[in-house]
Every structure is written in C-alpha cells, then in structure tokens.
Amino acid sequence: MNEMMTAAVSRPVRVTKDLVHKHDAGQVLLVGLKRLAEDEFLVAADWTDTSEFVGAGDRDQDSAVLLTETIRQTFPLLSHAGYDVPFGHRLLWSEYRYALNLPTLREGGIGGRPDLHIRCYDVVRRRDRVTALSLDITVLRDGEQLATAHTRFTIQQPAVYERLRGSYGDAHRMLELARSRPLPPPASGAGEEFRDALLSPTDAPDRWQLRIDTHHPMYFDHPSDHAPGILLLEAAKQAVRTMRHPRVGDAEAMETVFHRYVELDSPCSVDVQLLPDDQLGRARFLVTMHQESRLCFTALASVAKERTTG
Asked: Which InterPro entries does the entry mention (predicted)?
C-alpha cells in the first residue's frame, strides 16, 4: 500500500452535493467515505430526514427507492473521491440488482444511519483513468443487514459522450422538447402520489406509457438529456404493482439491465409479463421498456409475499 493510499485510508471524506451530482443539498443521503483497502470502501449514509424521498404511502415502496437512490449516489462519490475521475465525466449505468431484507426494514422502519460496505472489482482503466467499475454492496444498520446490491457502470469523457449522443446530448434542448408536450395522465393502482406516478394507461392491461415529469424534484434535480436510470427502476416497480394479478406487490428483489437511453422526445412503452415463480416461491415478472421499437431496459422483479398480521 503506497503513501497516497495510506493517507486515503486514514482521512475520511466529507460528502458534499457536488460529489454525488446533486443540486439540492437536502437530497444528499451520504455523509462520509472511508477507504478500507485499494478497492474497498465504507460509505456512511443518513436517513434521519428522508422527506424528499419518503411519501405517505406504502413504506415498502419507499424503502426500495430510498435504498436505490442511496446506492446511486455512491457512483459519483467513489468515482471522484475514490478513483480521481474528473468532474464533467459521464457515468453510464449498465446493470443493477438488489435484494431487500423486508422483515428487518419493516420492523425497524426507514431511518437511522446505515453503512454501505462496498467492494469494487473488474476495474477497467485506460491511460490511467478508470472507465468502468463493478460494485458489490452490503447495507447495514446497527449491525443488521438491510439489503445487498450489485451494480456496474462505465465512465465516458465529455468529448466522447458528446460525439456519441450528438444533438441528443444537449440537456437543455431535450428538456425544452419534453416540456413542450402535455404530460400524459397517471395510471391508477400503484398507490403513488400524483407527482410520483411514472405510468400512463393504455388500452392494454399489461402495457403503459412511461410518464416522465421533467419538473420532478428528485429525478430531475439537475438537467438531464435522457430519462434517469432511477426513474426507469421506479417505473418498473410501479408497473409490477399496477399489474392485475392476485399476487402483485412490491419488488423484494430486482435484476435490471440498461440497454440504451430512454430519450425525452418520444413515447416509451412499459410492458409486464408474468413468469414462473422464482426459487423462493415468489411471483416473478419481466418488465421491458421499448422506444421506437428498440429495447431500452429490462427488469426481472420478484415480488414480496403478502404480509401476515397477528
């Protein structure tokens, strides 16, 4: 371990909004970063005030979106503070999966100060710059495991991103296009507040149109030229909850792949298909999103068994 590495281990990093790519400091969920080894980190989170993320609905729904946003904020934090990625570089989500410990989350509720133990691997470097990372994450609170997750993302230099995206890479132009069109009405049945509804009904019971409100304070905290990944994840969970099936519920586990960007200037369809139960006997659903006949996103969701009451 070199001298720079030793210093990084002994000096925890205080998290600022810039380090997690947020404009609103009230949405920053991470408070500290400490390097334990070359590719291992301990990230401290703070869930004592989650009013920006937690509504008045089902707390299981809130725990999933809160967990995912907490994990998402580790991507830029580790990139900048852990691997010296310059600001302005683009982080591209490739895959993400999680498994919630719902009994513990239900018993302890949302709140407290969880720790995220993160191991990075399959680190790709080009010209001494990190260009891709895989993360294994364990989320603990007071010694109890709340969730596990795995994710991978890639990192592109601004010039490369701009060349690949072309006119689609102009966030302000894309937002103007999106806001020039009326927002479709929300679907009913998933239990979200109006501003958080991400689906609009169609004539088919297992298909919806993605509803992208570019004024949403969390999903569009800062300008984006495409639909953010966390919005797609939440839309997939809403689609599963809205599905007319006796065993629909909240996604206790999910495996997702981001195939291509969902653009802001054309409709995106969201389809749900019932699959055979998973190995734990949970109902399982496949969610796919297509835009202009191209596959953009897939998610396999295993639904939590119904709660029992004493």
From this structure: AfsA-like, AfsA_hotdog_dom
pLDDT tens string 199-213: 999 999 899 999 999
Look at the block and give the residue holding tokens 């993302």: 153
What pTM does this model have? 0.90
Q: Is the pLDDT of residue 189 over 70?
A: no
What is the maximal distance between C-alpha atoms in the chain?
Answer: 63
Q: For residues 157-183, b (16+ Cβ closer than 10 Å) or e, as one string?
A: beeebeeebeebbebeebbeebeeeee
Residues with Cβ within 8 Å of 241's Cβ and at least 6 positions away in sequence, in order, are 61, 189, 190, 191, 248, 249, 250
Model confidence at 245, pLDDT cuts 50, 70, 90, reads low
Mean pLDDT of 246-251: 72
Q: What domains are there in the chain, each with its CATH number?
A: 3-156 (3.10.129.10), 178-303 (3.10.129.10)
3-state secondary structure of 43: strand
Contact 154, 139 (CB under 8 A): no
- Provide the token pair at 153: 């993302």
Residues 6+ apart with CB under 8 A from 171: 223, 224, 225
